[in-house]
Structures are given as structure tokens and as C-alpha cells.
Amino acid sequence: MGNLLAVIVHAANIHDTIAGINPAIVAFDKYPLIQKFGGDCGYRKTFIENVADKLGIDVDISPKIALQDGISPKRWIVERTFAWANNFRRLSKDYEISTSSAENMFMLSHISTLLRRF
Description:
This protein is mostly helical. Helices cover about 50% and strands about 5% of the residues.
């Protein structure tokens, strides 16, 4: 199950590899025992360098899915977490005006998902 450690919503004109360090820093400050972060192939260069420079830890990059390989279990955790969030009406489209309300709606949807699972 993909549990959220940090949520940061940013403008669409900022690439995720550049802004990805922000939630990593927040998660590492909250949970200093984190030993490694995970990401897909899109986070290869900038994100790995930023995490190594600012936090001094490694990033585990999952390989691209080849047709014969099937689905990587670790990659599926992230995709499944976003799919659960899309079940909520407020997150299915960009209804939120401010980034803080979008972050809060995402956290509320995840709390609701966790409560239904247990």
C-alpha cells in the first residue's frame, strides 16, 4: 500500500524532476530514518542529483516496463495510489484554485481510502 509521507502541489510549468526534491525534503525531515527514495525513469538525472546533494541518500529508479516483463510491483504502488485519489470527485479534475486546498484534498482522499481499507 502506498502511504503518503509528504504532498506538495506545484504549478504545471515546473517539471516534476526539479520540484520533486521539495516533498523529498519534507518527508526526510518528518522521517529521518528514510534510507532510499523511489522513482520512475523520468526522475533519473536532476532528481537523483538533488537528493544526493541535499539529503545524501540514494534513489531507486524502477526500469521502464517492457512488453515481456510485466508490471513492476514497486512502480504499481505509486500508480495505484494516484488511481485511488482519482475516485474522489474533487480530485478527478482541477477544481481547486489554490495549491494548499489541492494538497489538503489529496490528503483527505488518502485518509478516507485508508479508513475504508481497515
